Amino acid sequence: GTMEWRTTPGRVVGDLSFVRISSGLAHVCALTRLGDVYCWGNDARGQRADARTIRRNAPVRVAGDDRFSAVAAGGAFTCALTTG
Fold first, then answer.
1. I need a labelling partner for 79 at 20 to 30 A (CA). Which of 2, 30, 42, 49 fits?
2. Do the beta carbons of residue 83 and residue 69 sit within 8 Å?
């Protein structure tokens, strides 16, 4: 729930459970067992895909009805593979 730099792992806010996680330069995206993608962190270039370019301290579900099987976050981008 904070944007503090940490030197040890911290628990993600909320009760979500992730099967895959990927981090970019200043944001993180994760995949749930149901195929939803959630992202949090910096969004200066729209890398979180939630139509808002503001910093988020907690996971926000990627908008739309798509289901995903993979997610990859990079420097200032995020890509996800739909299930079909």
1. 2
2. yes
